[in-house]
């Protein structure tokens, strides 16, 4: 009898164990499929899956601050969306059209849309996917969202992240030229812009002066146009570097990932972000220097650079004021804005511009006498900052930097410091420029615009930033950059 009872108990335990193992397997399976990223690459990268660090940098740098459930280290499935990613006849730019035998723009974008839809049809992740696009990939995502309107497949898309988006409503190069008709011989259509009313959370991110996403509005301003062309070379291809395409290049303007993360986690709307009528967010990562001077300096022979650099340091603040007259970020970022042939906004406050120019001249003189301009950007923070500052060696270094900064500045110079904190409330030329003082470095709350999301001033040592026109050690250098652009 006891033996029969033992058999019954063992049988029940076996059944329960099998049920538990099945449940655990289902839970683990669900965890492993907790998130999927569908990544549409830019021009010149038809297969993002074969380029090391391309997908990882996209997700970790630009999506994770908004979608922390999907990173390269937490089991999120990173899937590159294959498509031609070509742009005939631009065969002279990297891998955009090898041998001038490639698909034209509309053909390439159309194939990308079909590939996005096919990936969604085959998607088994119960939580759906984050849809991401870079440059031409942003155009692909835009057209795919348009085609999916009213389709149940759209329910699988839980969020959208776009970087360097060519179809960005306010600033995208294809939207600035939206008044042009389709050009048959090129098979290229200018727009329509990224849809903003799809009911999914969308974040668009671009570097300041990137002409693909943030092109000038007033094309009569030749300085703005020249600077934008230079940024196409020095900025647009460097969102995801270093990667397998360009292993030696850094991020645009010499940024590091901690700085980008700090900006993307700041308040929105705020200094770096605008919100459209549908709640979509548009971030602009501020420039640390002017691309036109970066390109000039990188093109000069090394022996000439020390001779030209003081002139660049002097001209940069004044040039910046004039360049920024070609932009106007005061409207709804979700509304398309065509280019204007004017050199500046008709509502420009020229009294303020005059004061800005006077201050810029003073800043230029200080740059030359002080050994070069510095651009203050929100310093990165982490939980160990306070402990690090307690370290005696670090403290000594910070004290030296603090003394150098405070001793070099007058009160007037502080008012005109070249701080790239973006105020999106009005014309780009109305940006407030404030100094970096010792209390900022020591982590005390101070007045100014370079604040983090909780409204407190950033802490930690002021980062060393490149002299305008001088290429940082980890910044892009030449056309060997990641050619995923436009």
Question: How would you describe this protein?
Answer:
Strands 2-1-3-4-5-7-6 form a 7-stranded mixed β-sheet, sandwiched between helices. 36% of the residues lie in helices and 7% in strands. The chain is α/β, with parallel strands linked by helices and 486 residues long. The chain has 2 domains: 31-287, Rossmann fold, CATH 3.40.50.1820; 307-441, no CATH class. The chain contains 14 helices and 7 strands. Mean pLDDT is 80; it is low at 20-34, 375-421, 425-474 and 477-482.
Briefly characterize the structure.
This protein has 486 residues and is an alpha/beta fold. It contains 14 helices and 7 strands.
Layout of strands and helices, then pairs:
Blueprint: H1 2-32, E1 36-40, H2 54-63, E2 77-80, H3 105-121, E3 129-134, H4 136-147, E4 157-163, H5 173-176, E5 202-207, H6 222-234, H7 257-264, E6 273-275, E7 281-285, H8 291-299, H9 305-324, H10 350-369, H11 385-390, H12 392-408, H13 411-415, H14 438-441
Parallel strand pairs: 1-2, 1-3, 3-4, 4-5, 5-7
Antiparallel strand pairs: 6-7
Helix pairs in contact: 3-4, 6-8, 6-9, 9-10
